[in-house]
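Quick question, first post here. What does this chain look like in 3D?
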Amino acid sequence: MAFGYYIVEIDVKKPEMMPRYRELVGPTLATFGGEILAASNTVSHLQGAPAPLPRVVVIRFPSYQRALDWFHSDDYAEALAIRDQACISRAIVVEGL
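> Answer (accepted):
Ran it through. Tokens below.
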């Protein structure tokens, strides 16, 4: 089965809210088998528009469906609500090879 990759670009507007987000998100990732592969403000925009937001996070899940299940889960809902208040973001899920 192919992995699922959750990729999110983030522009943090309320950094004071992010510690609570990080506290909540970790256990949800463990529940759904998510593993953070990259999380950085070091992003090079090489081509196309629009440019990515300043921070990019890549999380690998056991499957595409598992990534979607995590994002839409009650487990992640509180953390996502905090992130939505604290950040501007764009997110996608990609099925791996």
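The two ends are 9 Å apart (CA to CA).
The helical segments are 18-32, 64-71, 74-86.
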